[in-house]
Write a structure and sequence with these properties.
Number of strands: 12
Helix content: 40-55%
CATH superfamily of the largest domain: Isopropylmalate Dehydrogenase
Distance between the termini: 34 Å
InterPro entries: IsoCit/isopropylmalate_DH_CS (IPR019818), IsoPropMal-DH-like_dom (IPR024084)
Number of domains: 2
Family: Belongs to the isocitrate and isopropylmalate dehydrogenases family.
Number of helices: 12
Pfam families: Iso_dh (PF00180)
Radius of gyration: 20 Å
Strand content: 15-25%
CATH topology of the largest domain: Isopropylmalate Dehydrogenase
Shape: globular
Biased composition (Polar residues): 330-345
EC number: 1.1.1.41
Length: 345
């Protein structure tokens, strides 16, 4: 992978921006305004994907978009809509496979002022992004349409790299514990291999506490005792579910960013849907993609600017002044953005 330090040596970092569908363009524009206000002198190159691309180019994920992602290595993406049925493949899954973005990183942090049941959440879910039930292997239905099947594939290499990624992330961020989430008691082959490999990798990190938990117990404990969790690492399907559960602990998907990271590229995104019912109304909460842009800055080694923006988000939401309706206010997207910029001094 081209390291962030190498990227920083370039005269001006180029970011591929995929505005996406529905509210995507509005919230992406908000994030870019805030990045610019914070002094991030990026060059933005725009690309189409999703329904917008289908209408303009006749395909959901044009080659020109893939080429731009490949060229710039770092992308900021709004929500995309994959049409239901008709043989369409998930765009997000396609991007992860194309660029081997094997690590899905979903942090959730409590912000005072949100509609959250907890005040002290600080959890990172590290999800394997390319294998398991989402690999697409062996999917078929019987001729009489009375049965269906799919194949889950876990490889040793895939398990090693995602668990190592989680422990390295924990060490880098000064975290104390990694919880390995599995279902090896029932899925003895696939989840069993993942757990076996995770135990081996954990042994190389004596400075970080390692804990194992069956996925159903993890769901219960996340709801009852979320303070017990720090970093979680798990397989694709479990990670998809657990990361959304964690978003619910901090006020919903509007407060949850996501990063898809591989050895050659990284895509940072809002993880919620495109919300076509409020598209163009200038009322969407842009926090998810703003937090994703903070992840992007951290990836690029720009921690000072990342922390500035995070504190501005925290101050804006806590004040309750000029926040969007899902945060208890009545401000528009643009008013919320302006307020956040005023807090970044």
């Amino acid at each position: 992978r081209d390291s962030p330090s190498l990227l920083m040596k370039m005269s001006r970092i180029k970011i591929t921006v995929i505005p996406g569908d529905g509210i995507g363009p509005s919230i992406i524009e908000s994030a870019i305004q805030i990045l610019t206000h914070a002094g991030c002198d990026f060059e933005y190159e725009y690309a189409d994907a999703g329904l917008v691309a289908l209408e303009k180019h006749g395909e959901l994920l044009p080659q020109a978009t893939l080429d731009l992602i490949e060229k710039n290595k770092v992308s900021l993406k709004g929500p995309l809509t994959t049409p239901v049925g008709g043989g369409f493949t998930s765009i997000n899954v396609s991007l992860r496979k194309k660029f081997n973005l094997y690590a899905n990183v979903r942090p959730v942090i409590s912000f005072k002022g949100t509609k959250s049941r907890y005040e002290n959440i600080d959890i990172i879910t590290v999800r394997e992004n390319t294998e398991g039930m989402y690999s697409g292997a062996g999917q078929k239905r019987s001729d009489d349409n009375k049965s269906a099947e799919a194949m889950s594939i876990i490889t040793r290499d895939g398990a090693e790299r995602i668990v190592k990624f989680a422990f390295e992330l924990a060490r880098q961020e000064g975290r104390k514990k990694v919880t390995i989430i599995h279902k090896a008691n029932i899925l003895k082959s696939t989840s069993g291999l993942f757990l076996e490999v995770a135990r081996e990798i954990a042994g190389h990190y004596p400075d970080i506490q390692s804990e194992e938990m069956i996925v159903d117990a993890a769901c219960m404990n996340l709801v009852m005792y979320p303070e017990r969790f720090d970093v979680m690492v798990t397989t694709n399907l479990f990670g998809d579910i657990l990361s959304d559960l964690c978003a619910g602990l901090v006020g919903g998907l509007g407060m949850a960013p996501g990063a898809n990271i591989g050895d050659g590229a990284a895509i940072f995104e809002a993880v919620h849907g495109s919300a076509p019912d409020i598209a163009g109304k200038n009322i969407a909460n842009p926090t998810s993609v703003i937090l994703a842009s903070i992840q992007m800055l951290e990836y690029l080694g720009m921690q000072d600017k990342a922390e500035r923006i995070r504190e501005a988000v925290r101050a804006t939401i806590e004040s309750g002044d000029r926040v969007t309706r899902d945060l208890g206010g009545s401000a528009s997207t643009s008013e919320f953005t302006q307020q956040l910029c005023s807090k970044d001094t």
